[in-house]
Amino acid sequence: MKKFLGIQSGGTICQEKNENGVYVPVEGDYFYLAPEIYKNGKIDSFPHKAIDSTNMSTQHRKEITEIVKQNYLDYDGFVIVQGTDSLAESASAINYMIQNSKKPIILTGSQKPIKEYGTDARDNLYNSFKFASKGLPGVWVVFGDKILRGSRTVKEHSTDFNAFNSTKQKPFGLIYTKEHYFSLDIERSLELEGDVSYFTSFDTGVETYVQNSGNSTNVLENIVRDDSVKGIVVGGLGVGNIRDEYVDLLIEARERNKPCVVVTNCQGGSVDMETYEVGAKSSKYVIPGFDLTREAAVQKLMYSLGKARYEEISKENLFDYVKKIIYTPIGRDITLPKPTSF
Asked: Which residues are tagged catalytic?
């Protein structure tokens, strides 16, 4: 019989209404409310913290990674249960914190508390442990009727039970009547070279700027000149186009040794900054993120900057070092055009 560890890190699934009628996280083990999950194997629970996922931090994700690391040899897989608001960010972060895992690491949660009528919690828990029993390595999100790569997951609906999707790569699988149907064109062997590795010393000095049409440049200017900001993820228009007013600021960011990763503001598609002049003007000063999601780009930039600090990379070599990591697929997070220069 396979053995799994369920890590309980809060979220709507464990929340109850307080005296003011608003939901608050409640400590305690709740797996007993979904007894059907135990059909999938022996399941131990690890109550981590009851966190509203709005407050989920890099430190919390470090703690979750440490729990997995300490128990890695004793279990066949791990199911991390947390809130949905930052679940996609957690899935991306853990994809970089835990690499080359030969065992499944699955994130899930619910849109409705497990103690309430009509909850989606029981199905999500059952499906997550069921998928864990398949033994596919890597980081995944199992939620609603979809099985998604952690590095490709986005939350696209605030309340719907099918809240998550993979908009830049088709879902790995769909769930029907508690059975899983997988995409046949995806190999079972996934980035398995080398032993499992852990790195949690992310540099959290990363800011995002979602480029809008028609607003002033003051906000991006403040971000570029803020010494606490070490890297920037910029939302490009369309295929990564950048307004002319921003080009000098992106050049300044490069001169200040602050790597900027450009992703598309669109839900689908990829960045190609050489298509239009408005993209090409700044392309050599930034790192085009191709089809990285915003969530993955932020976490990967924090990971890259943390690795650079750990490796004591000089300021002069920082941009190229970060670019090389961004362009190294981890958990199949990015699709690179060929050839891609580093």
From this structure: 12, 84-85, 155, 276
